[in-house]
Structure formats: structure tokens, C-alpha cells
């Protein structure tokens, strides 16, 4: 996956590739991350990247001339769809992340100030994507969320031991509880079944826990899921 990120704060975005799974993915060449700073595409001495809004009011708007030049340059080497991170976009879900992970390249545009000129959205943006119903100061954290959640789904990025298949949302359910040593913490014991060595029984217990956690914490997910007969029976037990 080729990520190109348009941002006024490239160091912030690059940090996502300096640690953990994404760093490993970059080293394995499963992903590449290139940042483009619209400030580098300005032509005035002050390298101005914002301007006052038509109609007045508080806040500034990202200047469109340098942004358009940046987009044009990015498109020379990245043929992916252009995603504008925006609180007005369609909300990011695991299903959307799975779809993004099928693509080979993506361009992520991070807004700042009051955002970008509406005409850039009309002319250049393929999709607006929000990471939730709240407002961030800039799109960088949202871009990093996208990069992280997509990268961990790419083939070969996660080892078997930290496979994404059983993560929350993968099957439309929340994940089951996890335990590691010691066997007892402040009188709370690891469930005996997990030490039984009976893999079928453990798998069944885990599925029941997933159903139970989803029923308790996110009944909205359960309502949307098409439960198999076996899952329905487990839930009713
Ligand atoms: N005036 C804009 C509005 O109310 O729709 C908000 C601008 S916000 C202060 C600056 C930038 O942060 C946006 O252009 C966008 O790129 C990013 N941003 C803010 N909240 C976001 C969210 N929930 N999801 C994705 N990006 C977000």
C-alpha cells in the first residue's frame, strides 16, 4: 500500500511509521509513506498556506493554489483515490478499513484551520472520511488512524500471534477477553477452560464471550449481525 499524505505537519504523520507494526510494515515494504507539505508549494516569500474566508468570520482557510500544486505533484507518483479527512465525511468503520485495505494506493489530505476551500473538495476529493463525531485541530491524527488501521490488515503485516481475524468488529462482534500470566491477580483467576488444553472447548468459550461482550457493551452491533444458528444458540445458553 502506497500512502501519500498532504499535511502541513509531516513530522507528526511520519511518527506513525517509526514504531511497532507500521514501522515493521515499512521495513517489509508492505507499505510506503510519503508526506507532501503544501508549504513547499507556495510561491510567496512568507510561504503562506492560509487565507481569510470570504464572507468574513473567525478562522482561516487553507489556501488553494499551493494545495492544488501539491495534489498535482502527488498524483505524479500516487494513483490512489484522494481521501479528505473531515468531520463531515462518512464515519470510519472496520468495514470501510477493510475496503481501503484492498486498494494499492491512497492519498490522504489533512485539513487545518477551518478546513479547505469547498471547490477543492468538488474538484479533487474522491471521498470524505471522518474518524468520529468530534472536531480535531487537523486531519493528521485522522490520517494516522487510517494508516494504522489499514496497515494491520495488509497481508503478512501481522504475525500469526497478533492476527486481526479475531479482533473486535472483524466478525461484527467485539473481541473475547484475554489473559496472560500470572494465573491469579488479586484473587481473580484465569478462567480454568483456558488452561484445559481443549481447543474446541476454548474456541466455543471464546465465541460465547464475544457474543456476551457485544450483547452487553454494543447491542447495536448485535442487532446488525446475521447470527448463525450456532451463535444464536450460544447466546441463548
Ligand atoms: N470547520 C470544520 C468543520 O466544522 O467541519 C472543521 C475544521 S477542523 C478544525 C480542521 C481539520 O481537521 C479539518 O479540515 C479536517 O481535516 C480535520 N478534522 C477535524 N475533525 C475531524 C474528524 N472528526 N475526522 C477527520 N478529520 C477531522
UniProtKB/TrEMBL annotation:
Query: Binding residues for S-adenosyl-L-methionine, per the UniProt record?
Result: 111, 131-136
Compartments where located: Cytoplasm
- The answer, when asked if Iron is one of the entry's keywords, is no
Does the entry feature the keyword S-adenosyl-L-methionine, yes or no? yes
Q: What is its main location?
A: cytoplasm
Superkingdom classification of source: Bacteria
**Start and end of every tRNA methyltransferase TRMD/TRM10-type domain?**
1-223
Matching entries from Pfam families are given as: tRNA_m1G_MT
What is its biological role?
Specifically methylates guanosine-37 in various tRNAs.
User: What family classification does the UniProt entry report for this protein?
Assistant: Belongs to the RNA methyltransferase TrmD family.
What protein is this chain from?
Answer: tRNA (guanine-N(1)-)-methyltransferase
Give the species this sequence originates from.
Answer: Thiothrix eikelboomii
Amino acid at each position: 500500500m502506497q500512502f501519500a499524505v498532504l499535511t502541513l505537519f509531516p513530522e507528526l504523520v511520519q511518527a506513525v511509521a517509526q514504531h511497532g507494526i507500521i514501522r515493521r510494515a515499512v521495513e517489509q515494504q508492505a507499505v510506503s509513506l510519503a508526506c507532501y507539505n503544501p508549504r513547499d508549494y507556495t510561491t510567496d516569500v512568507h510561504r503562506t498556506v492560509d487565507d481569510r474566508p470570504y464572507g468574513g468570520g473567525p478562522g482561516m482557510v487553507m489556501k488553494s493554489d499551493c494545495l492544488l500544486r501539491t495534489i498535482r505533484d502527488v498524483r505524479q507518483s500516487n494513483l490512489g483515490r484522494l481521501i479528505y479527512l473531515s468531520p463531515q465525511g462518512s464515519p470510519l468503520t472496520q468495514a470501510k478499513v477493510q475496503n481501503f485495505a484492498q486498494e494499492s494506493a491512497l492519498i490522504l489530505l489533512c485539513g487545518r484551520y477551518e478546513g479547505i476551500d469547498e471547490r477543492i473538495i468538488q474538484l479533487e476529493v474522491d471521498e470524505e472520511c471522518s474518524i468520529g463525531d468530534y472536531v480535531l485541530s487537523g486531519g493528521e491524527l485522522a490520517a494516522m488512524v487510517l494508516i494504522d488501521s489499514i496497515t494491520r490488515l495488509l497481508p503478512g503485516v501481522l504475525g500469526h500471534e497478533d492476527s486481526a481475524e479475531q479482533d473486535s468488529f472483524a466478525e461484527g462482534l467485539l473481541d473475547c477477553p484475554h489473559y496472560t500470566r500470572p494465573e491469579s491477580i488479586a484473587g481473580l483467576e484465569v478462567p480454568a477452560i483456558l488452561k484445559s488444553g481443549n481447543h474446541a472447548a476454548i474456541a466455543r468459550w471464546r465465541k460465547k464471550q464475544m457474543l456476551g461482550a457485544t450483547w452487553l457493551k454494543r447491542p447495536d452491533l448485535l442487532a446488525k449481525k446475521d447470527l448463525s444458528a450456532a451463535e444464536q444458540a450460544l447466546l441463548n445458553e
